[in-house]
Amino acid sequence: MNLFDLQEKTLPNHYKEMTNDQLRERATQLKKKLGNDLFIPGHHYQKDEVIEFADSTGDSLQLALVSAKNQKAKYVIFCGVHFMAETADILTNEQQTVILPDMRAGCSMADMANLHQTEKAWEELTAVYGNTIVPMMYVNSTADIKAFVGRNGGATLTSSNAKSMLQWAFKQKKRVLFLPDQHLGRNTGYDLGIPLHEMTVWDPLKNEIIADKKNTISETKMILWRGHCSVHENFTVEHIEELRHHEPDRRIIVHPECTWDVVQQSDDSGSTKKIIDTIESAPSGSKWAIGTEMNLVNRLIKNNPDKDIVSLNKEMCPCLTMNRIDLPHFVWALDSIDQGNMINVIKVERDIAADAKNAIERMFQFV
């Protein structure tokens, strides 16, 4: 099912031929011209050249909240990825239009769960566990799966509020189906005191449970979808061991989308917002290694020159899909509004949006 306008046109050549100065000047002019009719949210993982024009920056939770609050701007140019733009469309009103500058901007994790797989998994899992499961969905997911979660009494969550949302979930049912990121689910559940042997993994490709030998059906509390972030899986225990050997005084903080072993061996872990807050409040002269997306790491290095900051993985590069939006596509989106011929409009179908909104608003009760 197509949930957004896929009739994307190719970026016109003249945008590719413009210099950065010309593009920046055009963006500045159009932003001023559109004034309060325009709102530009930007995710922390975006390029600096785009973030400089953002009206609000944040992680997934922060941008969902600002999208819900902004009911006046006629146009929202979302500098993020497709699932974030879908969420913005769900939370804005019918008179507002959400645009994604580059339709190729996506998330590999979100692509690891589709509606057919989710419905099949639900059928199989409820046959095994009965009516004891509540589905919980990381916001890095498509609108139709958010709608499925909403219809079945579940809620969305982000890395910022995963603990409180899981606590809520276990008050609803005995078990949680956590999708699509197994690592965030495992790390959060473990932090809440759930032992690993009470977690099992659902493989959507094989359509089966991958249970630990110590796990029994009666013990299972968390069913983790076999999905992951391709960026955060590139931080390994070997990176930590090498760093500990050469620089034992450098503290390590990672995102909970990293594997359980990496999180356990780091000094701290937390959401994008927590990582930013931790670094900004750290003492001058402190040394840090960060395990998250490189655009954010580079921005933290730039914004905190009094601290010694490196990536936990020295060979890490920015996420190719999260990093897709650039200045030419951004200016193209602005021009399309100014010319009255908008490109890459994100529009979630009403029935899907209504169910998805239920899942999102259940999350908003705990922020």
Please specify the SSE layout and strand pairing.
Elements: H1 13-17, H2 20-34, E1 38-39, E2 41-43, H3 48-51, E3 56-58, H4 60-69, E4 75-77, H5 82-91, E5 97-99, H6 115-129, E6 133-138, H7 143-151, E7 155-157, H8 162-172, E8 175-179, H9 182-191, E9 199-203, E10 208-210, E11 222-225, H10 237-246, E12 251-254, H11 260-265, E13 268-269, H12 272-281, E14 287-291, H13 294-303, E15 308-311, H14 327-338, E16 345-346, H15 350-364
Parallel strand pairs: 1-4, 2-3, 4-5, 6-7, 6-8, 8-11, 9-11, 12-13, 12-14, 14-15
Antiparallel strand pairs: 5-16, 9-10
Order of strands in the sheet with most strands: 7-6-8-11-9-10
Mean pLDDT: 92
The major pleated sheet works out as:
6 strands, mixed
How much of the residues is beta strand, in percent?
Answer: 15-25%
The residue ranges in which pLDDT falls below 50 over 5 or more consecutive positions are: 1-7
CATH superfamily of the largest domain: NadA-like
Whole-number count of domains: 3
How large is the radius of gyration?
21 Å
Number of helices: 15
Helical fraction:
40-55%
User: Judging from the principal axes of the Cα atoms, what is the shape?
Assistant: globular
- Reading off the top of the CATH hierarchy, the class of the largest domain is best stated as Alpha Beta
- The oligomerization state is single chain
What is the second-level CATH architecture of the largest domain?
Answer: 3-Layer(aba) Sandwich
Query: How many strand units?
Result: 16
